[in-house]
Amino acid sequence: NAALQSLSGRVDVHDGQISSQGAAMTAVQSQLGNIGGDNQLGNSGFENGTLGYNTSTSGAVAGSIVRTLVDSPLPNSTKAWRWAIANLPASGYSELVSNSQVRTLRVEPGKPITISAYVRGTIGPRVFLQMAWRDAAGAAISYSGSTNLAPYRVTSEAYERKVFTTPPAPANAVTGNVYVRVYGTNTPDQWFEVDN
């Protein structure tokens, strides 16, 4: 961030009265790392390890998914979560699910939620962003998730932001859980990384 400020002023005394005139001009240049509303997930950048998240896997060979924290090159982040997903089939997945260990995700009935994540990895795997809507007792009401279309594919080993805006929350929704899931392409040495 850079800021430049120029200030000029004049003070006059007339008939025992003091008056002043001044002008200030400020120019501010800034790069915004996150545009949008406040991040409602605790530990979204994994600075406190994986606290606040559960993981699960389906359709993978036992021991073929290895998850590690790595240094993140993104501004305002220090860690990313890398998953080695060797030979994970297209019908198999690995996912993280937010929980309330750090912060409970509160939702408002009738209002949508925007889920976003920076992802990178082996080109081809599909990314699935999903919201589980829950009632006051914590029971699942319904789920809203992204599509199986090109915008939700990993297309680069450089970070790219994936964004999904849910339909309005159900009438009795009070809290929610965010899912970030990746489906494989059944190739050796596949990897996937997620941050913020």
Largest sheet: 6 strands, antiparallel
Structural class: mainly beta
Globally, the shape reads globular
From the alpha carbons, calculate the radius of gyration and give it in angstroms: 23 Å
Poorly predicted regions: 1-9, 23-36
Strand content: over 45%
Helix content: under 10%
By DSSP (H or I, 4+ residues per run), the number of helices equals 0
Tally of strands: 13
Order of helices and strands: EEEEEEEEEEEEE
Task: Quote the average pLDDT.
Answer: 82
Distance between the termini: 21 Å
Walk me through this protein's architecture.
The protein is mainly β. It is 0% helix and 49% strand. The protein has no helices and 13 strands. It has strands at residues 2-14, 17-29, 53-58, 65-71, 79-85, 93-98, 105-106, 114-121, 126-134, 140-145, 160-165, 175-183, 191-195. A hairpin with a 7-residue loop joins β4 and β5. The chain is globular, with a radius of gyration of 23 Å. 27% of the residues are buried. Mean pLDDT is 82; it is low at 1-9 and 23-36.
How would you sum up this structure in a few lines?
With 196 residues, the chain is an all-beta fold.
Features:
5-stranded antiparallel β-sheet, 49% strand, disordered N terminus, 196 residues, 6-stranded antiparallel β-sheet, mainly beta
Give the topology, please.
Blueprint: E1 2-14, E2 17-29, E3 53-58, E4 65-71, E5 79-85, E6 93-98, E7 105-106, E8 114-121, E9 126-134, E10 140-145, E11 160-165, E12 175-183, E13 191-195
Antiparallel strand pairs: 1-2, 3-6, 4-5, 5-13, 6-12, 7-12, 8-11, 8-13, 9-10, 9-12
